[in-house]
């Protein structure tokens, strides 16, 4: 079997963490006799600096020709601190999602026993948490038009727009995941206030009839935010619109004890993208201190969801768990005592997979 991958390291710590994930991927492919082919391309601030476009046509062409995309991070303080910049790195991420038709972001949130004390939540609340957040990616306020400011600059406006088709495809996808897990789905909206949320609920209630085996609950977003910290173990699969999902998935990240532990997959009409949830963390770039585990776990998701190679994904997950149990981790999740550099953690995990 041949694995054809597009590798987009991006900005900040992106190149460092992608390097560690590639170490794991290469060892798995050697051990399981898989043929690996990959090419790298520019995206984000580095692409703007090089060619003036955060998602160049050449990068998009490579993504379309590949079976999966492994993506690092986007963002640069050069652009964050310049309110007049007309082109921004984050526009590259939005363009990639839109052009690849990536309408669903899938974020598994798993509590690791060795990190229970790192979570701001009580250990008994975190213990055993295993939930999946599914966020709609290509609709809602981030893409709605009109959007802008008044001529005098004193009024700004954004528009939240959703179609029945967009809602139906993401909700059906969420039911599919719920059927493979514990058969419970939480649909998050704000139907008591927003017209788009009322359409979400209307469409979801129609689809619910096709999945009688699944326990379906509807929850307002403010209640869901509260429940995530009060009783995270009550969730199995959660689905919601773009902005709500952006906020709730970052909130859910505290359950693991570190944002550096969360992988994700973005799936849709064309090539799927696998990436860590965290950002480019420019303050750590080049210092060999960034946590690579979310990116390595994203590589595990890639094996499982892009290539249906469950055993290969499990090999990576087991090695990551072993690294945490052995204390071979970066400073952000070290439990006192020695911490290890980004490349040291990547080397240890690759060696562990190779045993």
Structural write-up:
This protein is 42% helix and 18% strand. Helix 1 packs parallel to helix 13 and helix 12 packs across helix 13. The strands form two sheets. Strands 2-1-3-12-11-4-5-10-8-9 form a ten-stranded mixed beta sheet, sandwiched between helices. A two-stranded antiparallel ribbon has the order 6-7. By secondary structure, the protein is of the alpha/beta class.
List keywords for this structure.
single chain, 355 residues, alpha/beta, ten-stranded mixed β-sheet, 18% strand
| Largest sheet strand order | 2-1-3-12-11-4-5-10-8-9
Helix % is 40-55%
> In this structure, how is the largest beta sheet organized?
10 strands, mixed
Number of helical segments with 4 or more residues: 13
H-E string: EHEHHEHHEHEEEHEHEHEHEEHHH
Q: Tell me, what's the shape?
A: globular
Q: What is the count of β-strands?
A: 12
Please indicate the percent range of residues in DSSP E strands (runs of 2 or more): 15-25%
Give a short synopsis of this structure:
The protein is of the alpha/beta class and 355 residues long. Helices cover 42% and strands 18% of the residues.
Layout of secondary structure:
Blueprint: E1 2-10, H1 14-31, E2 35-40, H2 45-51, H3 57-65, E3 68-73, H4 77-80, H5 89-100, E4 104-110, H6 123-126, E5 130-136, E6 148-149, E7 156-157, H7 164-180, E8 184-189, H8 195-208, E9 215-220, H9 221-230, E10 237-240, H10 242-252, E11 263-267, E12 272-276, H11 293-306, H12 310-325, H13 342-354
Parallel strand pairs: 1-2, 1-3, 3-12, 5-10, 8-9, 8-10
Antiparallel strand pairs: 4-5, 4-11, 6-7, 11-12
């Amino acid at each position: 079997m041949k694995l054809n991958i597009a590798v987009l390291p991006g900005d900040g710590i992106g190149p460092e963490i992608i390097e560690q994930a590639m170490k794991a991927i290469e060892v798995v492919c050697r051990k399981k006799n898989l043929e690996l082919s990959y090419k790298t391309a520019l995206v984000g601030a580095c692409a703007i600096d090089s060619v003036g476009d955060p998602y160049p046509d050449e990068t998009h062409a490579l993504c379309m020709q590949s079976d999966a995309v492994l993506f690092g991070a986007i963002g640069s303080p050069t652009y964050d601190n310049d309110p007049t910049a007309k082109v921004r790195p984050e526009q590259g991420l939005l363009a990639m999602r839109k052009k690849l038709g990536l309408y669903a972001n899938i974020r598994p949130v798993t509590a690791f026993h060795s990190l229970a004390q790192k979570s701001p939540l009580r250990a008994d609340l975190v213990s055993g948490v295993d939930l999946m957040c599914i966020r709609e990616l290509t609709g809602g306020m981030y893409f709605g038009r009109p959007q802008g400011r008044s001529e005098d600059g004193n009024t700004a406006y954004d528009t939240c727009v959703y179609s029945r088709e967009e809602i139906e495809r993401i909700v059906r996808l969420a039911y599919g995941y719920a059927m493979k897990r514990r058969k419970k789905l939480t649909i998050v909206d704000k139907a008591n206030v927003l017209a788009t949320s009322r359409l979400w609920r209307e469409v979801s209630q129609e689809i619910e009839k096709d999945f009688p085996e699944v326990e379906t609950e509807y929850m307002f977003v403010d209640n869901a935010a509260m429940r995530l910290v009060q009783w995270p173990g009550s969730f199995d699969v959660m689905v919601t619109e773009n902005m709500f999902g952006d906020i709730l998935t970052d909130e859910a990240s505290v359950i693991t004890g570190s944002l550096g532990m969360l992988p994700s997959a973005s799936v849709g009409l064309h090539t799927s993208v696998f990436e860590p949830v965290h950002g480019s963390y420019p303050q750590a770039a080049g210092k060999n201190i960034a946590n690579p585990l979310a990116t390595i776990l994203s590589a595990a998701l890639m094996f499982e969801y892009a290539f249906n190679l469950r055993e290969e994904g499990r090999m990576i997950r087991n090695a990551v768990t072993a690294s945490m149990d052995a204390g071979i981790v970066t400073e952000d999740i070290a439990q006192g005592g020695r911490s290890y550099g980004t490349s040291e953690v990547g080397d240890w995990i690759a060696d562990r997979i190779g045993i």
